[in-house]
Amino acid sequence: MIQSVTQRPRARIDLLEQFVYFGEEESIELAERYFTAVDETLIKQPRIGGPYDSSIPELAGMRRIPVKGFGNYLIFYPPHSGGIDIVRVIHGARDIENLFKVKGDRLSASVWLVSH
């Protein structure tokens, strides 16, 4: 069953930045494949990702899954009864814990929990 997949504004920014990067550094075709891969990774099985173990209590319940065919990129999302809500899409080499700790970012981990 296909469930709802929504993207938070910060996730959209992540995806646009990555699209531009792939388009400029590799090719537009690769950038388009990346966008398609993100959509296809979760649309049919939104709970397939594993739990994200974190020292940040606000991230309890967060899951992550590598983007199909782009394994260094991770989709972070909390599942809910109607599907998933993509919070971030981040390259695995980045300092993920600190990206979620950023204060003043409306889309930080603590905010996504409050809104659910």
Descriptive report:
There is one protein chain. By secondary structure, the chain is of the alpha+beta class. The chain has one domain: RelE-like (YaeB-like fold). It has 4 helices and 7 strands. Strands 2-3-4-7 form a 4-stranded antiparallel β-sheet, with helices on one face. Strands 1-6-5 form a 3-stranded mixed β-sheet. A hairpin with a 2-residue loop joins strand 5 and strand 6. The chain is globular, with a radius of gyration of 14 Å.
Structure keywords:
38% helix, YaeB-like fold, globular, disordered C terminus, 3-stranded mixed beta sheet, 116 residues, alpha+beta, 4 helices
Number of strands: 7
Beta fraction: 25-35%
Largest sheet: 4 strands, antiparallel
CATH homology superfamily name: RelE-like
Shape: globular
- Topology as a string of helices (H) and strands (E): EHHEEEEEEHH
Report the C-alpha radius of gyration, rounded: 14 Å
- Helix/strand/pairing category: alpha+beta
The level 1 CATH classification is Alpha Beta
Q: Which runs of at least 5 residues are low in confidence (pLDDT < 50)?
A: 103-116
How many helical stretches? 4
- The mean pLDDT is 76
What is CATH's topology name? YaeB-like fold
Percent range of helical residues: 25-40%
Spatial strand arrangement across the major sheet: 2-3-4-7
Straight-line N-to-C gap: 23 Å
What is the count of distinct domains? 1
CATH architecture classification name: 2-Layer Sandwich
